[in-house]
Design goal:
CATH topology of the largest domain: Rossmann fold
Pfam family, one: Mg_chelatase
Shape: elongated
CATH superfamily of the largest domain: P-loop containing nucleotide triphosphate hydrolases
GO biological process, one term: proteolysis
Radius of gyration: 27 Å
InterPro entries: AAA+_ATPase, CHLI-like, MCM_dom, Mg_chelat-rel, Mg_chelat-rel_C, Mg_chelatse_chII-like_cat_dom, P-loop_NTPase, Ribosomal_Su5_D2-typ_SF
CATH class of the largest domain: Alpha Beta
Largest sheet: 5 strands, parallel
Number of domains: 2
Distance between the termini: 73 Å
Number of strands: 16
CATH architecture of the largest domain: 3-Layer(aba) Sandwich
Strand content: 5-15%
Helix content: 40-55%
Protein name: ATP-dependent protease
GO molecular function: ATP binding; DNA binding; peptidase activity
Length: 475
C-alpha cells in the first residue's frame, strides 16, 4: 500500500494500522497493489484522523462495501490494530465543515460530545470499524454518543472579597472587564497582582454561541475533549515565561495555534514576564488585528487571536524600586523594564501600581470591598450600554469611532493634552486614555465624558510615570 499527497510519519504509519484493523474486523485485505491519494497534494497531512476514511475507501474499492453507502458521509478517526476507533483532535471544526455542506459526519465514540455540541446535522459516533460498516449497510443504526459531565462552577471558590484591601486594583479590574481593556499590574512580590488578575475572568460575561464555537474550534485542534458544560466560559491562558515564540503565537512545520489563539475571546495572562523581548513584541500585531497569520512555504494559515492581555510585573530585578530593599540603581531598573518595548507598552490601556498593604491591615481583616456578583452586574450594564451605542467594546473603537462616540468639551480636551505632554505619551496612548474614560463614564451611566473620568483614566498610567521618574533620576 502506497500513500501519496505529502503524508507525515504518523500518516505513513497508518498503513499497518489500517491493514490490521480491516483483518480484525473480519474483512479481507486486498492482495493487490493499493495507492491512496490524500488531496490536496500540496498540503502536508499529519495525524491518525485519516485511518477511518482510508479503511473505508479500501473496502469500497475492493467491493466489500457498496459505493452508494458512503455517499453524503464524511469520516474522521484513528484506528487501533483491533479495529476500535480512537479519539482525534479537530473534530469540532470538522463538524462545522460537514454542516456547511450538509454531510453526515461519523466520529469516534469519545468525540461524540464535540459533534453534538455544535453539530446541526444527523451526525454519528462509533466504537469500531465494524460498527461503521454495519450502519452503512443498514444492519445497525448509530447515534451520537454523549458522556455525562458534572458541572463545576469554577468561580464558586474565587471572589473579589477574598482579596484584602487593594480597592484601586479591584476598580481597575471592573473597568477592564467592562471595556475589554488590556491591563498591567506593577508592584513588589506578594502584593496580590496574580490573585487580582485571576479574578478578572469571573467579572466577564459568558461567551455567545458564536464566540464559544470559535474558541472551542481552536481548542479542538490541540485537545481531544471539551467540557460541554463549561465550554462558554472564557479561556484564561497563562503561559510559562520560558515559552518560545512558536508556543506563544503559534507555529510549526504544520502550523498549530499558540497561546494567543487558545486565549481567543478570553484572557492571556503574562505573570512576571521574563519572556524574550522578541517574543513579547510578537504580540503587537495580534493585539491590533485580532488574528495571527503564520506563513509557510506551503501557504498561509490564519488563526483568530482576539484576546484581552493582562500582565503582572515587578518594577525592578529585586522586586522593589524604592526603599532599602531596592538594591538597584535607576539605570539597572530601566534596563530591566526596557524588556517591554514602547510600542508594546502603548497597547496596555491601563497600568496600575499594586502597593504593599499598610501595617496592621491583615491582622484587622482589612476592607474586602464588594463581592464579584455585585461588580459583575455593573459590568454587565456598562457592556450593554456600550454595545447598544458602539456595537463593540470600547477597547476596539477606532480613531473615527472615538471622535463619534467620545466627544470632549474644549476645556477637558485641553486638560488631557496638557497631561499628555507632561507624561510624554504617544497619540496611541491618548486614544487609549479616552477609551478608558469612556468606559468609566459608561459604568456611571453618563453619556458625556467629564474631567473626572479623564482624571481617573490618567491615574491608570503608572508605567508611564515610573519610566519618567526613573529617566529623570538616571540623568
Amino acid at each position: 500500500m502506497t500513500l501519496v499527497g505529502l503524508p507525515e510519519t504518523t500518516v505513513k504509519e497508518s498503513k499497518d494500522r489500517v491493514r490490521s484493523a480491516i483483518i480484525n474486523s473480519r474483512f479481507e485485505f486486498p492482495s493487490k497493489r493499493i495507492t491512496v491519494n490524500l488531496a490536496p497534494a500540496d498540503l502536508p497531512k499529519e495525524g491518525g484522523r485519516f485511518d477511518l476514511p482510508i479503511a473505508l475507501g479500501i473496502l469500497v474499492a475492493s467491493d466489500q462495501l457498496p459505493t452508494s453507502k458512503i455517499a453524503q458521509h464524511e469520516f474522521i478517526g484513528e484506528l487501533a490494530l483491533s479495529g476500535e476507533l480512537r479519539s482525534v483532535k479537530g473534530v469540532l471544526p470538522a463538524t462545522l465543515a460537514a454542516d456547511s455542506v450538509e454531510r453526515c459526519l461519523v466520529v469516534p465514540h469519545h468525540n461524540g460530545d464535540q459533534a453534538a455540541l455544535v453539530g446541526k446535522g444527523a451526525h454519528k459516533s462509533a466504537q469500531t470499524l465494524l460498527e461503521v460498516c454495519a450502519d452503512l449497510c443498514g444492519q445497525a443504526q448509530l447515534g451520537l454518543y454523549r458522556t455525562e459531565h458534572h458541572h463545576v462552577d469554577v468561580s464558586d471558590n474565587r471572589d473579589l472579597q477574598d482579596i484584602i484591601g487593594q480597592q484601586q486594583g479591584k476598580r481597575a479590574l471592573e473597568i477592564a472587564a467592562a471595556g475589554n481593556h488590556n491591563l498591567l499590574f506593577l508592584g513588589p512580590p506578594g502584593t496580590g497582582k496574580t490573585m487580582l488578575a485571576s479574578r478578572l475572568r469571573d467579572l466577564l460575561p459568558e461567551m455567545s454561541n458564536e464566540e464559544a464555537m470559535e474558541t472551542a474550534s481552536v481548542a479542538s485542534l490541540t485537545q481531544q475533549e471539551i467540557n460541554q458544560y463549561n465550554w462558554k466560559q472564557r479561556p484564561f491562558r497563562s503561559p510559562h515565561h520560558s515559552s518560545s515564540m512558536a508556543a506563544l503565537v503559534g507555529g510549526g512545520s504544520i502550523p498549530r495555534p499558540g497561546e494567543i489563539s487558545l486565549a481567543h475571546n478570553g484572557l492571556l495572562f503574562l505573570d512576571e514576564p521574563e519572556f524574550e523581548r522578541k517574543v513579547l513584541d510578537s504580540l503587537r500585531e495580534p493585539l491590533e488585528s485580532g488574528e495571527i497569520i503564520i506563513s509557510r512555504v506551503a501557504g498561509k494559515t490564519r488563526f483568530p487571536a482576539r484576546f484581552q492581555l493582562v500582565g503582572a510585573l515587578n518594577p525592578s530585578p529585586t522586586g522593589y524600586y524604592e526603599g532599602n530593599q531596592a538594591r538597584a540603581n535607576p539605570q539597572i531598573i530601566l534596563r530591566y523594564l526596557n524588556r517591554l518595548s514602547g510600542p508594546l507598552l502603548d497597547r496596555f490601556d491601563m497600568s496600575l501600581e499594586i502597593p504593599l498593604l499598610p501595617k496592621g491591615m491583615l491582622a484587622e481583616g482589612g476592607d474586602r470591598g464588594e463581592t464579584t456578583e455585585v461588580v459583575k452586574e455593573r459590568v454587565k450594564q456598562a457592556r450593554q450600554l456600550m454595545l447598544s451605542r458602539n456595537h463593540k467594546s470600547n477597547a476596539l473603537l477606532g480613531s473615527r469611532e472615538i471622535e463619534k462616540y467620545c466627544p470632549l468639551r474644549r476645556e477637558d480636551a485641553e486638560f488631557l493634552e496638557t497631561a499628555l505632554h507632561r507624561l510624554g505619551l504617544s497619540i496611541r496612548a491618548y486614544h487609549r486614555i479616552i477609551k478608558v474614560a469612556r468606559t468609566i463614564a459608561d459604568l456611571e451611566g453618563n453619556e458625556l465624558i467629564e474631567k473626572k473620568h479623564l482624571s481617573e483614566a490618567l491615574g491608570y498610567r503608572a508605567m508611564d510615570r515610573l519610566l519618567k521618574q526613573l529617566s529623570a533620576q538616571a540623568v
